[in-house]
From TrEMBL:
The keyword Signal applies. Keywords: Signal. Residues 36-120 form the CsgH-like domain. The keyword Phosphoprotein does not apply. Residues 1-24 form the signal peptide. This is CsgH-like domain-containing protein. It holds the Pfam family CsgH.
Length: 128
């Protein structure tokens, strides 16, 4: 079976359009329907802060979690980050830090996935 050059061009164009549509869908889901933020809880007398993400589609990208805290026991600057993959509709932890309970803190948490950068600094009760 032989395929004409004209037909090959049409097939290639169709594949390119399909690939573009798939990437556009991932980019939209990364910023539109994806939920991310900081979940806080108490753990062994400390305050646990977890960067967490939930997406309706499987997702991969990079994250950065930076926490600055200060309190009676001193101060700390903690920075974590790297590549991640997240399954669809599952809460995925992207970094976890324990600080002294009662400390004041500030957080910078963002995710880059599907060509989009998402600001995830907000507190969330829990995504689990």
């Amino acid at each position: 079976m032989t395929i004409s050059p004209r037909r090959i061009g049409a097939i290639a164009l169709g594949l390119a359009v399909a690939a573009f549509a798939a990437n556009a869908g991932l980019a939209n889901s990364a910023s539109g329907d994806t939920v991310c933020g900081i979940a806080s809880s108490s753990e062994r007398g400390m305050l646990a802060l977890e960067g967490t993400i939930v997406s309706p589609v499987a997702l991969s990208g990079e994250y950065r979690l930076a926490i600055r805290s200060s309190g009676g026991g001193g101060s700390s600057n903690i920075s974590q980050g790297g590549y991640f993959t997240a399954n669809a509709n599952e809460a995925t932890t992207l970094g976890k830090v324990l600080i002294n309970a009662g400390s004041s803190y500030s957080i910078d948490f963002n995710v880059s996935a599907g060509g989009q950068k998402i600001d995830c600094d907000q507190d969330i009760a829990s995504l689990r």
